[in-house]
Write a structure and sequence with these properties.
Elements (H helix, E strand, L loop, with lengths): L14 H36 L2 H21 L4 H18 L1
Length: about 100
Amino acid sequence: MAKEPAKKAKVKRPTPLKRDLQNEKRRLLNKAFKSSVRTSVRDFEAAIAKGDAAKIKEQLDDVYSMMDKGVKRGIYKINKASRTKARLAARAAAKA
């Protein structure tokens, strides 16, 4: 049989240090998520510029989904998500 790698012993950290590690991890995840939301909004704006109705609807649905997920995760507040979705929907309606 293959040799098993030696297991690392758990490190007992003080609580404030553990919170710092957890906060940094969450900050990076939240930053990546917000970046993907901004990319999705840019894709929507590109679809608006092209005037492709099917693509506009698809991108709008994508932004809606991502904003709702952000609210569920606690990354965005509900009013920010609602405001963003309303503004994008108004732009889509004006283009249609």
